[in-house]
Specification:
The protein has about 475 residues and is an alpha+beta fold. The protein contains seven helices and 34 strands. The strands form nine sheets. The chain has a six-stranded mixed beta sheet, sandwiched between helices. Strands 9, 10, 13 and 16 form a four-stranded mixed beta sheet that branches. Strands 12-11-14-15 form a four-stranded antiparallel beta sheet, covered by helices on one side.
């Protein structure tokens, strides 16, 4: 599951950064807000986030057009107060050497006052009365008061000429809706970056002039009538490498997700987060007209697989795996344990046809029950209870002096396979050794370890349902 999510996040990161073909030159005025909070000392590979950010910012500045005006705000670099926000360089003709040296001198110490730093930037922009692209580089979420998204919305409503991009650098939190909301409200993009290479690409894309769109696309994603997080990407028809990407999250601030686009024909792909096995939903040839908002509401649907697992009619510990039928593609995994809080297992999966494999976690011999080609319908539940039958077989090893340490191999006489093994040791806690087996007939092979020189012995045993059979091999 985590691996799948990581792949999806990386894909969105690369996709969001691939809008070069849709971009133009650098904006005339750029204002960086640089995170110098204490968390920037966090490790990233063989370095720290602050060192990587300083080096990457220095490289970026050297690539900016000579006629670009740039400014720098930093927060958290002097103390741990939420008011620690400073204009280190106003938006002015770019002195690349001075700008780079200023960034290099930052020493992370404090908090992450994102909302206040954006207010600080807005004050500067008001005095300029010019359009400014603000690029916030942060490695965390807000740790002070204020809601950045609301502040940006208010500024835009007042006619302040601000575009806001957000670069999330090595952020550990899963819900980044507050940052994506701020970028959305600011008419910009959110760029995730979890390595030096991704940070470099994100910053390079954030300083590109994004063409202003005259159309809007609104995407709302829900599950069981509640907001549901989903990945989305939107690209010009026939050009999947270039476009816009993001997530809806489960917050009204970003769900529906509203994208401002040039009018045209687009393809849209939507995939829910944390629902394995759900096929990507696609809208092809979606016409988004100028001067209007095109809305798409996506309701993800699920059905329920419920399976109560018992052994000899008592709640039992087992693993439950759900696969797309006829494949090894896993859709859901669960463990019931032998307690009412978790047993029966209740698994929510997309509508479809599945194979369900239940494996006892208590019995020896990889005992399984399979339910093949089970159809799950949206909004409905299928019940697949199963009771494992078993008995106990206790195998002891002794001689005249006491316990014998011996290896034990259980051989199923019906299947002619070895199904379990163990060791008795010379201790009452393990001698006799307990095995929980499917009812049947077994041969037990014992090979003494201590004392040495004893010969191998074999004994037979019949195990019946709910029985407790004890067999002692004696030398």
């Amino acid at each position: 599951m985590k691996k799948i999510n990581l792949i999806l996040v990386m894909a969105i990161a690369c996709f969001a950064m691939s809008i070069t073909a849709m971009a133009q030159s650098n904006p005339k005025n750029i204002l960086f807000i640089f995170d110098a909070s204490g968390s920037m000392w966090g490790k990233l590979g063989n370095s720290t986030k602050i060192e990587v950010a300083k080096q990457t910012m220095g490289t970026l500045v050297q690539k900016l057009n000579s006629n670009t005006k740039a400014g720098l705000i930093a927060y958290g670099h002097r103390n741990s107060e939420c008011s620690d926000i400073e204009t280190l360089q106003p938006v002015a003709a770019l002195d690349k050497t001075k700008f780079t040296a200023t960034v290099r001198a930052l020493n992370p110490k404090g908090k992450t006052p994102i909302a206040k730093s954006i207010l600080h930037a807005i004050t500067l922009i008001k005095a300029m009365n010019e359009a400014v692209t603000v690029i916030l580089v942060t490695d965390g979420l807000e740790t002070c008061e204020g809601i950045a998204c609301d502040i940006i919305r208010k500024a835009k409503a007042e006619g302040i000429k601000i575009t806001l991009h957000v670069v999330g650098f090595g952020i550990a939190e899963k819900d980044l809706s507050s940052l994506e909301c701020a970028a959305q409200a600011g008419g910009g993009q959110y760029f995730p970056a979890n390595s030096a290479e991704e940070l470099a690409t994100a910053l390079e894309q954030s300083v590109k002039e994004v063409p202003k769109g005259d159309a809007f696309l609104s995407i709302k994603t829900t599950l069981d009538s509640k907001l549901k997080d989903a990945y989305i990407k939107v690209y010009k028809k026939g050009n999947p490498k270039d476009g816009f990407a993001g997530r809806t999250y489960e917050s009204a601030a970003t769900n529906p997700r509203i994208l401002q686009l040039p009018a045209g024909t687009y393809d849209v792909e939507i995939r829910p987060v944390d629902i394995d096995g759900y096929a990507t939903i696609k809208f092809s040839d979606l016409v988004i007209p100028a001067g209007d908002t095109t809305k798409r509401d996506i309701e993800f649907k699920q059905g329920i697989i419920e399976t109560k697992i018992t052994r000899n009619d008592a709640l039992s510990d087992a693993t439950v795996q759900v696969f797309l039928t006829g494949t090894k593609t896993s859709v859901a995994n669960y463990r019931t344990y032998a307690k009412a809080e978790t047993n029966p297992a209740v698994l929510k999966v997309p509508p479809g046809i599945y194979d369900i494999v239940i494996t006892s976690a208590e019995m020896n011999g990889s005992v399984e029950k399979k339910f093949i080609r089970q159809t799950v319908v949206a909004g409905e539940k299928i019940a697949l209870p199963h009771n494992f039958e078993s008995g106990e077989l206790l195998i002891g090893a002794k001689n005249a002096q006491g316990y014998v340490d011996a290896t034990v191999v259980i051989h199923d006489l019906k299947t002619k396979k070895d199904i379990a093994s163990g060791r008795t040791y010379q201790a009452a806690g393990s001698n006799p050794k307990k095995f929980i087996l499917v009812p049947g007939n077994y041969r037990v092979d014992l090979m003494p370890v201590k004392p040495s020189g004893l010969a191998k012995k074999s004994i037979t045993a019949e195990v019946t349902v709910n029985s407790k059979v004890e067999k002692i091999a004696e030398w």
